[in-house]
Write a structure and sequence with these properties.
homodimer, WH_DNA-bd_sf (chains A, B), mainly alpha, DNA-binding transcription factor activity (chains A, B), DNA-binding, 7 helices, 3-stranded antiparallel beta sheet, Arc Repressor Mutant, subunit A, DNA-binding (chains A, B), DNA binding (chains A, B), 160 residues
DNA sequence: TTCATTAGTTACATGGCATAACGAAAAACC
DNA sequence: GGTTTTTCGTTATGCCATGTAACTAATGAA
């Protein structure tokens, strides 16, 4: 037999689930020394790159629900990596910024994740990794229009 | 700005998480009419293709822990898609087979997931999808040796 | 002013996945 | 042949990720 899961191997989703599970396990192990998880790391990066970001916008960018973001930010704030500051113009909203420590941890974590990424893509040529990125983004695009036919702009875009 | 998550877009894991979340959402919606989830569908396929399979072996193949498989099989058995039968030679173990209904549902579900797969990979050439499979399998391979340096054969293989 | 909307939050439910520990049966051992 | 060890399926449990509903406070529009 060609492998007990040969039927499933025909599906991109199956290969992707297996690959992603391993990536997630490894990246979480890599981030643990920094006190970060995959989600908190992602949030930290976006906040560092977009100072003054509001929570709702961050939730949009990371495609997570606002309630989930609360605990993520609690986590980052407790670790003194991020601060929430009430917005001057809109006193409902918070503006997010990284602390000095947050910027430093972010740098180191990014470097660690870059090494992790290189490890996981080893054996693949640069062009193959590029093609992988392209294919994944196309799937993301397809997946979005499937879930919301009228969507063409939900994702990360530049602020107005 | 090139996009608020441009730092993260450099990582395969980030693109993959986003793509996979959408795939998972869509495939679960596709499978819902069959009373299946992603995991139960996977188990059903492998059992159909490998009659008489033991639970431990199935857990190995799908890379899930034995305790988790129990509920998955309870689910499939309750839906009358799969039967557990005590093994003649080893009365601790169960041999798994699909029922007639299970085979039928499996066929239809596979067809539905094939359509889903085509939808999610639309816009990509056949060669690009092939390259995607190849890249994902290479990552799976890399991920396994990372987590278990002495591993080269944990995955699905033919029975002795 | 009143009403609808928005930002963040709380509470809660669900599903995925991992570990520890158990009873039963088999295998290994002496 | 009886004892120990291992294996199979199971139970119980907990953690993490994720989603929904409902609340509050503040904003903005009618």
């Amino acid at each position: 037999m060609a492998g007990a899961d040969s039927t499933l191997r025909r599906f991109v989703g199956y290969d992707m689930k297996r690959a992603f599970n391993l990536i997630q396990g490894d990246v979480n192990a890599v981030l643990k020394p920094f006190g970060l998880r995959m989600v908190t790391f992602s949030a930290l990066c976006v906040i560092r790159d977009t100072p003054g970001l509001k929570q709702s916008r961050l939730a949009q960018i990371l495609m997570i629900e606002r309630p989930n973001l609360v605990l993520i930010l609690d986590d980052l704030e407790r670790a003194d990596l991020v601060v929430r500051e009430r917005s001057r113009e809109d006193r409902r909203a918070f503006e997010l910024t990284v602390t000095a420590l947050g910027a430093q941890v972010c740098n180191q974590a990014v470097a660690a994740v870059e090494r992790h990424d290189a490890r996981m893509t080893s054996g693949l040529e640069g062009a193959e990794v590029q093609a992988l990125h392209k294919a994944l983004r196309q799937i993301e695009l397809n997946g979005r229009s499937v879930n919301d036919p009228s969507d063409r702009s939900t994702g990360p875009v530049s602020p107005p």
